From TrEMBL:
ABC transporter domain span: 6-238
Signal peptide start-end: none
Stated family: Belongs to the ABC transporter superfamily.
MF terms in GO: ATP binding; ATP hydrolysis activity; branched-chain amino acid transmembrane transporter activity
Species, as recorded: Caenimonas aquaedulcis
Highest taxon in the source lineage: Bacteria
InterPro entries: AAA+_ATPase, ABC_transporter-like_ATP-bd, ABC_transporter-like_CS, BCAA_Transport_ATP-bd_LivF, P-loop_NTPase
Protein name per its UniProtKB record: ABC transporter ATP-binding protein
GO biological process: L-amino acid transport
UniProt xrefs under Pfam families: ABC_tran
UniProt keyword list: Amino-acid transport, ATP-binding, Cell membrane, Membrane, Nucleotide-binding, Transport
Amino acid sequence: MSSPLLQVRGLHAYYGSTHVLHGIDFEVRQGGITTILGANGAGKTTTLRAMCGMVRTQGDIILGGDRIDGKPTESIVRMGVAHVPDGRGTFLNFTVEENLRIGAYTRKDKAGVQADYERMFNYFPRLRERRRQQAGTLSGGEQQMLAVSRALMLQPRLLLLDEPSFGLAPRIVQELFEIFREINQASGISMLLVEQNAALALRLADHAYLLETGRVVISGSAESIRNDESVRRSYLGY
Ligand code: ATP
């Protein structure tokens, strides 16, 4: 078993005086895919935001042995954490090409950036066709593909994905999740995936945590969670 890339212990998060996460523990293995499941308002988005210093937290967040809690977002990005926020996070007035170049802003290896740029178009051929188009003119699915590609241009160690299936047609979702698997297998990029679509997330992930009102109530291998009676009833619908 490989060691964790990300270890989170006793994590609390707050918006002002609102206490949203109540001491959660979880990890993402090196090269692994962890999913955090839960209903609306459970704290999934907040958990991802906490990983990149975007909310006030208490507790330990350890990336590859280094504490990242309390660090500014900019430093966390430079340490290899890329965030694909809900609502996509592309620069709508910039072209596809420009978005990808912006994604690589921390990198100095020009040849590597160029190779990754081509790689993104191989993953998502539709982006190649639309590379001179403004991101704002793309379909929802294409914008999601661009948001993921932009994050990957950072060459992250850890990719944070917030509800990537949201609002997309089932066929596009299928395509996107197949690419996630391919990227994970080809480049070993670890992923932390937040999803309301539990069935979908549990097919991709190796580990899962179920959040309810800011607390982890069930955790384990994706397979064991898939077979958990209460998860099946409440989140999988069978
Ligand atoms: P959803 O799928 O609806 O986004 P979620 O599991 O991602 O749900 P969060 O968005 O993390 O949940 O929200 C957790 C709790 O924190 C909710 O009760 C929400 O109302 C509250 N919350 C979220 N953002 C803020 C904010 N900026 N200020 C105050 N409270 C917030």
